[in-house]
Design brief:
about 200 residues; eight-stranded mixed beta sheet; GATASE; single chain; about 35% strand; alpha/beta; histidine biosynthesis; glutamine amidotransferase; glutaminase activity; Rossmann fold
Length: about 200
């Protein structure tokens, strides 16, 4: 299977590549639109700011490439957030706009520290193939200060002061707010499920 990990310059690419390798799959780290378009599965990991990620995607001519995709793509953490229409980060950033009418906001909770860092539960519907063989008691590893509120594309939610989207899907575009590659067996199972969709 051809698996591409998008190199936005704003992510730890090694950890996701190692996690995929442990599942028995090879992947390629690339920012070449022609390779991305030919890949069967695509990962868009992201760490840092929406502004930096969008600048890199523009610079590498990947915005239109991403919008053309019909094969499954998984945005991880910031990768999911930039699928929204707009981020209030960095005084406002227009993002890719896959999840229409969805906006990324600062996680506002008066008595909890930011970033939201550590292990937390996700509340999901077992029937979705992304959650196959994942127990509802499992926890996943989060590191973020911005969220996408609950919306029509939300597949799973998490509470940290407020409830927010921790897994989203629109057609072939999937997103997770947590880091499956750092989430132990449950994260590995979710990656496996995505690769088998």
């Amino acid at each position: 299977m051809d698996i591409a990990i998008l190199n936005t310059g704003c992510a730890n690419l090694t950890s996701i590549q190692v996690a995929i390798k442990k599942l028995g799959y090879d992947s390629i780290v690339t920012s070449d639109p022609s390779i991305v378009l030919k890949s069967k599965k695509i990962f868009l990991p992201g760490v840092g700011t929406a502004l930096a990620a969008m600048e890199q995607l523009h610079k590498k001519n990947l915005i239109n490439t991403l919008k053309k995709l019909t094969q499954p793509i998984l945005g991880i953490c910031l990768g999911m957030q930039i699928f929204s229409q707009f981020s209030e980060e960095c005084k406002g950033v227009k993002t890719i706009g896959i999840f229409d009418n969805c906006f990324t906001h600062l996680l506002k909770s008066s008595n909890l520290p930011l970033p939201h860092m550590g292990w937390n539960h996700i509340v999901f519907n077992n029937l979705h193939p992304l959650f196959k063989n994942i127990d509802k008691k499992e926890r996943f590893y989060f590191v973020h200060s911005y969220i996408i509120p609950l919306n029509k594309y939300t597949l799973a939610k998490t509470k940290y002061g407020v409830s927010f989207s921790s897994v989203m899907q629109k057609n072939n575009f999937f997103g997770v707010q947590f880091h499956p590659e750092k989430s132990g067996d449950a994260g590995a199972q979710l990656l496996k499920n995505f690769l088998e969709i």
